[in-house]
Amino acid sequence: MQEIADPAGCLRQIFPEGDIVAVTDDAPLGAEAVGHGLRYVPLDDVATLPAGSNVVLFLGHHLISRRIRVLFKHHRVLVVPLASFDGAPEAAGYTLRMTLLTDYLKAAETATYWIDGLRNGAKKVVFGPLDDPGEDAGITRLVCSLGPSLTVDAWPHAKIGVGDWVSIGSCCELSLTKQPTSVGDDFFSMEGTVHASGVLAAKDPRCTEEGDARVRRAHRLRAEMTELGSITLSLKDNVLVGARAGGKDFTGELLDVTNPDHGLQALELGIGTNLALLPHVDWRHNSQLNEGAGVMHIGFGEGITGAHMDFIIPESDHHFLP
Predict the structure, then answer these.
(1) Confidence class of residue 149 from pLDDT cuts 50, 70 and 90?
(2) How many angstroms separate the CA atoms of 189 and 266, rounded?
(3) DSSP reduced 3-state for 148
């Protein structure tokens, strides 16, 4: 078990004053939070909190909803959506510990660096060497072309104010996304080969019944791929054309669990900003905190009609090109 010397230390970067409360819908996780020095309040008792409370919200059995958000409209909230990934006890405890180990100041500084780099006229970002070593080199090289309609989801700040509802994902990654219906290169397009160490499967709160069935299959697929070690992905014109691990081709199975209608087009280019967490990461867990610990990740599927699958590349150089 990873030892947390001072749980409030990193959380003080976002909640500099007052008590920090762990609110959760899972009593054993609340007890574990107490063991790390936090105060635990059950989700059903949120009304007892004074206005302006500092809250880390761990949702293990509930997906994010408007009803839950309304409960916290007068508080400072960092939300960790466990149920969207894996709310089981082992994974939830791991995510709790990674939340406490995260360096939010460094993550905010890294997010600002990337936002400035993208604003300064970058038209492409190359992950890996500038010169193409060829597919047989066995190293990551991905060329990401950036379009004029590019939007960025991130929280490039350490401090959270009253009334703010901030997802842990926004603190620990910079996400460039597109809709499955988007056509052309107005947002981004990726081409090349990457070698991923981790893979996640997630669902959206708006998940359909058919999508939920795909998500369940995706969890089994994720576990199998993770056990095999490094995962090689090949992309062409922003579409995944090959996914292999342990000598097995998983491309068809990924097409199934992410919804075949989307044709394995990449819908997310994620930039990890929580790089200081990487030495502590255990890729076996389906935890959102793993997502931002790698240099980048690529997402397929939208989590509604099929699973959202993220593949995490832990280390790589990058270059901004005009």
Answers:
(1) confident
(2) 8
(3) coil
